[in-house]
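> tool_call: predict_assembly(chains=two)
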Amino acid sequence: MSDDLNILILSCGTRNKIVQYFKKELDGRGLVIATDCSDLAPALYEADDYYIVPRMEEEGYLDAILSICKQNNIKAILSLIDPELSFLAEHQQVFLDIGSVPIISDSDVVEMCFDKYKMFEFLTRNDFKTINSYIDKEQFYSDVEAGVIKYPVFVKPVRGSASINISKVTSKEEIELLFSRFDNLMIQEFMDGTEYGADVYTDMISKEPVAIFIKEKIKMRAGETDKSVSVKDNQLFELIKNFVKNSGFKGIIDIDIFKVNGEYYISEVNPRFGGGYPHAYESGVNVPEMIINNINGNPNDDAIGHYEDGVCMMKFNEIKILKSVENAFSK
Amino acid sequence: MSDDLNILILSCGTRNKIVQYFKKELDGRGLVIATDCSDLAPALYEADDYYIVPRMEEEGYLDAILSICKQNNIKAILSLIDPELSFLAEHQQVFLDIGSVPIISDSDVVEMCFDKYKMFEFLTRNDFKTINSYIDKEQFYSDVEAGVIKYPVFVKPVRGSASINISKVTSKEEIELLFSRFDNLMIQEFMDGTEYGADVYTDMISKEPVAIFIKEKIKMRAGETDKSVSVKDNQLFELIKNFVKNSGFKGIIDIDIFKVNGEYYISEVNPRFGGGYPHAYESGVNVPEMIINNINGNPNDDAIGHYEDGVCMMKFNEIKILKSVENAFSK
């Protein structure tokens, strides 16, 4: 089976669609193997085979994953949760050494995604419009006085995994209170505009962005896009190409963008398959196929904008049933 | 087509599974018609036919629904959203007059479900254990002093549709602050135990509870059960039967229950298909079939507990794609 294009999906969780798409695109040319630390991750049961693994923080995690890669002759490895992206990026070389290609950007780029202020500095330095952000509240106060920014603003932790909720605040008093209670906060401009998401694939061989799918977010639910509509806009395609090439992203990423008064502002990047990727796939933007091409040694042609606009995506709940799970989970 | 067992599902939203189940159970004996005020309700596109209708609050809504019932020779009508349950219950007779049976409890019972304090009083009066609740904060303070209840407690609006979030509070000061800012609040005991959900069908002809499915909630997400496991417990079956017969519920309801120190406490009732009903259906508790039997003139036999325990349900996102929706939604 040494030619099999086997793919490993780490921390698959509830991302059943991603597993389904890889299986469909492999179409027998390889297996999809999935892992999760819980046997109640429904996407496990979509895969050709699965492993219940330790939690990422636990000792021996890297060895466990390396051993799965070797045993299953894994050609590409990807993760669907944020903390593991740093892990994959850091250990890129050990995986490459055994012939498994992590579909991930380099460590410094991944880390920038998880530090909103670093991302802000990078974007500003490179002349990309972004959301005005401050870690220095005195600087913010003086910008308020100078009329550069006005209330309301958002106060949020600089690093993504929020220990406090994001707060919309309207006064200096509230900012003082939050900054006195929590460390590592930043103040961010409130963007009153339209929100977009872009799924972007940068070829692992040619290093060129080869697929971009843009959707306008119509309805959010619990922090996720619940309904969206596909959009084509050459100005935004060019902006995204520039941004991706400048910042050095590789593989699949998901970008959040705001449009205010006709101008696009880059907000955040998730260097993995975004929760809204199924919209792109069902519209013909086939990233699993592009990944398979890459691990098969073939670069992909530029297919940016190869989809129809005005296509709507609406999420709903599907369920997976698992029988006889006595003692399978702890209460 | 006068013998067709056509069913109308109002405000179907994202409840695709419910529409699918009715279609499957009808199996050609009738049509499933769905409505929603938005054409971005994915469940519309599962139905045999659908109508985009005005919002429920808008004038002419009742006439619009009655006219759909007449046009399609609807035999049963149900709604999947809370505000519309009151509407259906209030107008039961007009629907019955044209031969469409609303699968809903009577108005007083439905209203009790939306008033947490009325429900508390009903349960207490009828000797059912429930969550200790207060609308009189002075009474609460004196019970705290007497050692009847202790902090933390929840402060929440008496009526379901929350204009403020539910707050977990630990002091008199916080309670005073919340009561000074909002009307119609209640204080509710914090239940430190296991949470269960029960899907219950009370036959529309025999008025007897004929199906009960109990699941332990393993994981919640955005207020919904994300993972659950089926449970069988005769003590709880008896408690639920008693409760349902005492309170006069009809049709399909969903009950929230807590277990603390081996005792069951009834918390809330949704007099409609609960969000977790697919777990019951996939475990063999076939409420759509029971509804179809009823509108076909046949009562259902007691099937309480006819399912396996230890069956796990895990939700994940499925998507529906809708092409060419130019001008189909407003921005």
